[in-house]
Amino acid sequence: MMDGIIPNLMKYLLFVVNLVIFVLGCVIFGVGIWVLLDKPSFLVLFHEVETLSSSDLNIDLYTIDAYIIMAVALLMAIVSFFGCCGSIKENRCMIGTYFFFILTVFILIVTAAVLNFTRDLKTSLKSPLEEALKKFEDQPIDDEAMFAYKNAWNEVQTEMKCCGINNVTDWMNVKTFATGLNKPEGCCMWEKNGTDISNNTSKIEACRKSKDSADSSRYYFDGCFTKIMKTIDANKNIILWVNLGLLGIMFIGLLFSFALCTMGHSHHAYSRLDEN
Predict the structure, then answer these.
(1) Between the CA of residue 114 and those of 17, 137, 176, what are the distances in Å?
(2) What are the phi and psi torsion angles at 131 (to 5°)?
(3) Angle CA(193)–CA(194)–CA(197) in degrees, nearest 5?
(4) How many Å apart are CA 112 and CA 243, to the nearest integer?
(5) What is the distance between the terminal CA atoms of the chain, rounded to a whole angstrom?
(6) Rounded distance, CA 156 to CA 206, Å?
């Protein structure tokens, strides 16, 4: 059995730490599933842009993050099992296994976080969007790809209340609109006073004919790209703080497991598997 107040305290603290890691692992795994099932509309747009643009836009590099999160979360839950059982059963072998794997996960999370936060998303996403925008067709005929692309743009602009990449003037270079119209209908589903005009044909047409600039007081004619990046940055900041908290808890677990393993030598507190 464990001798001394401090070793016993560390034993139960390690159990609690790993219980927290297990719960966090399950929560993060659930978040990963939610991300896969509830993709934001701009990811659909990126997918359509990928088929139209000659630029190197591999959308899998961004959607694969959800799978990485789920894999790490599952590994965390499994590793925490060794920590919980090892601390309660006072088994040095399990604690040593836990220490090795938790250190590996710790390094993987740090590496993934550094790679994720050093990626230049702004350049790699904006150029393909600008190139694909030139191919926009407001009235595609017998072209499923262009029809899907048009719908993706309209959905993004409606959902995020924006117009174009930088602003409404981006659509001035598109020549496929019907006479008098100068922007897609996705720019004209909402007025800035909060009125939903998606079912008002006359108001939508008036908006599509409007020559208001990006600072329009009536319509949402500011760009979508800034809002997309704000959404991505907000999600990255949430992930950053979650990772920092998780790394802090894992670091405490590393310290406790290392201390308990070394204490075990002098107090014979942890039995080896071959001694059973």
Answers:
(1) 25, 40, 43
(2) -70, -45
(3) 105
(4) 10
(5) 14
(6) 20
Number of C-beta neighbours around residue 231 at 10 A: 13
d(CA 237, CA 15): 29
**Do 133 and 165 contact (CB within 8 A), yes or no?**
yes
User: What digits encode the pLDDT tens for the residues 209-244?
Assistant: 999 988 999 999 999 888 888 877 776 777 677 777
Task: Give the CA distances from residue 87 to residues 5, 9, 144, 159, 259, in Å, rounded to whole numbers and listed in that order.
Answer: 15, 11, 59, 50, 12
Token pair belonging to 270: 């942890």
For residue 202, is pLDDT > 80?
yes
What is d(CA 169, CA 241) in angstroms, rounded to the nearest whole number? Answer: 37
**Lookup: tokens for 74:** 């599952």
| Two tokens, residue 54 | 């000659």
The residues facing 196 across adjacent strands are 190
Instruction: Determine the pLDDT at residue 21.
Output: 82
Tell me which of 69 and 4 has the higher pLDDT.
69
User: Could you tell me the CA-to-CA distances from 8 to 2, 132, 173, 250 in Å, in that order?
Assistant: 6, 63, 72, 19
- Cα gap 111→100, rounded to integer Å: 17
Closest CA relative to residue 254, chosen from 18, 66, 45: 18
d(CA 171, CA 184): 8
**Chain segment 67-93, per-residue pLDDT in tens:** 777 787 888 888 887 777 777 777 777
